[in-house]
Input
Amino acid sequence: MASTDETSNDRQTMAYDSEVAPGVYRFGTNRVNWYVIEADGELLVVDAGLPNHWEQLVDGLDSLGYSLEDIAALILTHGHGDHIGFANRLQKTANVPVRVHSADVALVEGDSEENMREVVWNLWRPAVIGLLLEFSRSGGNPSPVETVESFEAGTDLELPATPQVIHVPGHSAGSCVLYLSDRNVLFCGDALATVDLKTGRARGPQIMPMFTENTKQAVESLDQLGSLGEVTLLPGHGDPWRGEMHEAIRLARSRK
Ligand SMILES: [Zn+2]
Output
C-alpha cells in the first residue's frame, strides 16, 4: 500500500501548463502547490514551493512565452519553508520583490523555527514519511530571503491582477489569503488545504492538521471569507476546489 502511495506522490512535476482558472497556472508537486498569475502582460508568483522547483519556474515561464523579467513580484501567503523555496534565488537572479505579511517577515528572513510537534507525532504514517522525504530531496532548506517587503491586511496590492489581501492568522501569525475579484479566485495558502498531508487523502477544504500554529484562531479567521461567494479555491496543498465559500468553511469546521 505504501508503495502505491509513494509512486503517485513522487510524481514530481505537475503540468506547468495546467490552467486552473483564467490566467492562473498551477505548479509544484502532488504535495506542494504554487501559482503564477498572468495579468496585462505581467506575472505574479504566489508562493515559491521548494528550492528545486526553480527549474519548473524557468521552464514553465518559457512555455507560457514569458521570462523571469516579466515577474512583477513574488507574494508569499505565509512564511513557512515549503512556500519560500526558490524565493531567494528569484530575488537574486531577477531582482524580484518578495512580499509577505509583516507578522511573517521574520520567518522568511530565517529567524524563526516552525512547529514540528505534530509532524514528529505522526512520523509512523507513510504519507508523513513521504512528505519529509520530498522535503529532504528538494534541495535542502530554503535560503532566507535578504530583502523582504511587508504588507498589511486590507490592502489591494498595486500589482498585476490587484490581489486583495485578507489576513487570516492561525496557521501562522502572518497567514494571508489573496483574492482576485476579477476571476473569483482565492489563493488560500495554508489557511485551508484540500488534502490531509497526514494521510495523503484528498478530503476537500479543511484546516491543516500539521504545521498550524493556532488551530482555534485559524478556524475563527475563516469568518472573514464567508461572504466571498462562489470561488475557485487554490490551496498550498491539494487540488483546486470550486464552490461557495461558505460551504468550504462549513466543511472545514465539520472536520475539526
Ligand atoms: Zn504553512
